[in-house]
Amino acid sequence: MTNVLEAGMRLVVASHNAGKVWEIKQLIQPFGLDAVSAGDLNLPEPEETETTFAGNARLKAVAAATASGLPALADDSGLEVDCLGGAPGIYSARWAGPTKDFSLAMKKVAEEVKQRHGWSAPGPKANFICALCLAWPDGQTEVFEGRVDGVLVWPARGGNGFGYDPMFLAEGKSETFGEMEPAEKHAMSHRSRAFEIFKAAKLDGLERGGGADVATANGGAGAFEGLSAAAANLSTRAELAAFVGHLREDLKANPGNWENADLPRFLEAMQGWLQDETSLEDEPRWRLLAKALLAASMYE
Ligand code: ITT
Fold first, then answer.
1. pTM exceeds 0.85
2. Residue 79, pLDDT above cutoff 80
3. In angstroms, what CA-CA distances link 139 with 60, 242, 293?
4. What pLDDT was estimated at residue 7?
5. What's the pLDDT tens digit per position in 191-215?
6. CA of 17 to the centre of ligand 1 (A)
7. Distance (Å, rounded) from C-alpha 183 to C-alpha 180?
8. DSSP one-letter code for 146
9. What is the pLDDT of residue 281?
10. Which residue's CA is the closest to the ligand 1 atom numbered 31?
């Protein structure tokens, strides 16, 4: 029998990438599905041993569905550069090293292209790919794929988005994914395209309700979660600058949510947090600053 998604069902977002979890929750919650992340359920992160995006998405979704007894949605995605034979491809996250520092990963991509082929206008052809897999506890799986084509730019531009966004220019656009407003990226991204196919196949009968909006727009715990996802993913100075802008907007829109809304308490909390969080020694510097600023708004 085919499994069917119904309003009120709990779905695991089978990812340990805070940015992806946030984007996927934003996509499914308006359909009345209750989303919980693999991290929230303390599910282990499986090793990605397959050779395709679809294979790795299936592996992550099945692992989460089997361990939780709930349907699970996983995303495997990445950047493919034509002249690098499709690299970094399924290794896109791994090119950023153990601290997931994408300023390094982007530099590595640019250097590989320059060394092997030279960099000529309009930039090397590249595309983002996303494979979304829905898996059920009984082992049933379905995969939905989306793709967006474009070229790479160097130096990278913009502080929005995450990962390789600042060096990707989609076909026909003059702003990189890192320069676009999030809504504009979401309207055309590989993830949204995969989601559109998933939606047509699996969410057809489900009513689209109010649901959560973009991170800082509607306040409450959702805003903090969105900021937290952004802080966990950023890797560049420009991304930190954009993040500080979002933090300022949040303080203006939701001052009541801030435990430490005045400067003395904010600084005291930041000092306390930096003294206590010894595990952050190897965190990339821009990300550490973002996390410290966010923690200072709440830390007691
Ligand atoms: P999970 O496996 O836990 O979901 P991950 O970050 O390791 O998290 P992947 O293995 O699918 O995820 O790696 C995909 C990488 O490709 C991701 O870390 C990004 O750097 C990059 N990527 C995917 N979608 C992107 C997007 O929309 N914009 C920029 N970079 C993206």
1. yes
2. yes
3. 12, 41, 43
4. 87
5. 999 999 999 999 887 766 544 443 3
6. 7
7. 8
8. E
9. 83
10. 163
Residue 183 pLDDT > 50: yes
Torsion of CA 220, 244, 130, 214, to 10 degrees: 30
Pocket probe mutation, ligand 1, options 75, 164, 235, 239, max atoms within 8 Å of Cβ: 164
Beta bridge partners of 145: 131
Which stretch of DSSP H or E encloses residue 53?
helix 53-68
Judge whether 215 and 294 are in contact, CB under 8 Å: no
Using CB atoms within 10 Å of the CB of residue 219, give its burial: 0 to 12 exposed, 13 to 18 middle, 19+ buried: middle
Task: Return the best residue to mutate from 16, 17, 143 for the ligand 1 pocket (most ligand atoms within 8 A of CB).
Answer: 17
- Kindly report whether the peptide bond that precedes residue 88 is cis, defined as omega within 30 degrees of 0: yes
Active-site hit among 40, 75, 76, 282? 76
- Residues touching ligand 1 (Cβ under 6 Å) are 15-17, 20, 48, 60, 75-79, 92-93, 102, 128, 161-165, 177, 189, 191
